[in-house]
Amino acid sequence: MRSAHPWRFLVAAAAAAIGLPAFAQDAPVRIGYAIARTGPWAAGAQLTQEPNYLMWADQVNAAGGLDVKGRKRKIELVGFDDRSEAETVVRTYEKLMGSDKVDLILPPWGTGANFAVMPLIQKYGYPMIAPTATGRRLLGMKNPYFFAILQQPDRMMEALAEFLKARRVETAAVIHVDELFGLEQYTGLEEAFKQKGIRIVEKKSYPLGVKDLKPVLSDIKAKNPDAFIALSYPPDTFLVTAQAREIGFNPKAFYAAVGTAFPVFRDKLGPTVEGVMGLGTLNPKSSPAAKAYFDAHVAKHNKEPDRWASAHAWAALQVLEQAVAKAGLDRKALREVIASLEFDTVIGKVRFRNGENVSTPGVVSQWQGREFEVVWPPDRATAPALFPKPHWR
Amino acid sequence: MGFWLELVASGLITGGIYALVALGLNLQYGLMRIMNISHGEFLMLGAYLTWLGFTVLGVNPLVATPVVALALFAAGLLVHRLCFRPLARTSPSVEAIEARSLLVGFGLMYLVQNAAYLFWGADLRGYAFLAEPVEVAGARFTANRLLAFGFAVAASLALLALLRWTLFGKAVRAMMQSPTGAQLVGIDTAVLHPLVFAAGLALAGVAGALLSMVYEITPSMGEPYTVTALIVITLGGLGSAAGCLAGGLLLGVVEALGMHFTNPSLKMLLSYAVFVAVLVVRPQGLFAR
Fold first, then answer.
1. How far is it, in rounded angstroms, from Cα B184 to Cα A216?
2. CA of B77 to nearest chain A CA: how many angstroms apart?
3. Each residue's pLDDT tens digit, A151-160
4. Contact, A92 vs A34, CB < 8 A?
5. Is this structure's pTM higher than 0.90?
6. Cβ distance B42 to B178 under 8 Å?
7. ipTM for the predicted complex
8. Cα B99 to chain center, whole Å?
9. Where are the domains of chain B?
10. What are phi and psi of B139, to 5 degrees?
11. What structural domains does chain A harbor?
12. Residue A119 in contact with residue A93, Cβ under 8 Å?
């Protein structure tokens, strides 16, 4: 085979060398990213983020390609495993933007990794729309190429405070994970609760990787707060829910942060999750577009997306797609378009101001049966809230 | 009083889980100086096999646990044959075994972990089993945690009896003290060595099976468990079954009390403070002679 048509290779090489227009037209749009496929970040990254990238490239290519200012070009994803290491994230993006010179980039998973590449995207001028980065600290850097499409902590905590206030909750106990995420969420929550007049009767922090929170929960149970809020990461979200049930601590509102929106939360804990609230954005009942997104995700990956940031990851790709159709691959123009226009996505209209998605409101969701129902704000609700929370099952 | 009981009991149960995690490595490192750093990965394998059995085949995890133990035992024989037998043969001393097995262990760790990523993906997995709270003397515990605790205590005591009072146990201890000497008095180390190693892997598998009922699982779950295991066996005294149990329980109780009276964020500080304190007073560990 190889020796049969050496001329073919030569012609192709010559064509590439002089850049024949016929070939240039067909060249795919190369989109690079690094994301965790192994290591501790992989569980989140492989649930919330990368499946969306793969599905998007598939769908766009099946429809003829990415619309680059009216011209359809196929997408070629250049994805690497970052092994859950910040250094590998930085090195890989440096290579993708600096030496491979890909056309576009997609963000890595998680606040830390996004934080790590922010200086690079500014240096090389690549817009990045991050679905799994939260925190005022990131937006405070005023990086013109960084766009956070996920609701920020204060927004989510305000929604929670409004929800609780509307149900006359007066006291709350809070625990948070000792990480930037937990601290940011707590700052947002403290401010929102103060405004709404909800008293925080107990506040404790705990380290990542904790295996037992029962001693803390017993204390909190004794104080009998109306609401319990855990600003937690997935392993502790599971732990705190299982252990609250274990000791029979059943406040009127039980809220845990990251991980409640994961389908595995329901699968691991079974009927225990009934009435548990958490960070969410939508579910298949939210809109026909959301339903189509869930169905396509299950068809492609044979697993459900989560009910929070997955949809934001998909929405980020929709924003990018619409912006490229308008501005093409000139990244400065692309940044201007993303920064100034309003986009139609699976999570509704999205508009950025100073890098923050200011269109998507804070949302409170709650497990009811097998669905993570949106219960706040009222105009996005897919079911009325179960309040007070039913007893643990 | 009931409050104290609950607090200490909660610490004991978590401590039992720590001891459970350490059991297998205690055999391998404690008795044979094989620093099997991939211990947590085999624990993860046990967890995945149990999860697979439950979710795909509908096998009761309690039934699956002995099967997992057997499977890991067989895997242990194979791993020993392929990796640690040649290593033990070519190493001039016990110290050399220790250093070299560390490198082999790292290799195994990557191999097993990445195989798990390949087969099952990176997703969090889990299933609900024996998650109902059980009331014991006024305090409430989930049944699966009690089970893990019970197994840790029973297995530690069984191991203790085996090593102390049987000829087999004597032979194992002799092999550790002097491999050549053991051979001279007629102990077949070529049989004993792989058996003990494989038993260590089987115990890791059982720990994984039991923990999969309590916690959610991922392919990267193993590493923190290896660290826990190392702390526990060093604390308890290398190779001591009683020490392993006592070390785990001590850590659990100190953490529970510490988290209650200070701040949960100080958990690591407390565990390491205990660790350092014990090593300062008794560098050989709590129970080592």
1. 56
2. 28
3. 999 999 999 9
4. yes
5. no
6. no
7. 0.86
8. 20
9. 2-221
10. -105, 155
11. 6-152+287-357 (3.40.50.2300), 153-285+363-380 (3.40.50.2300)
12. no
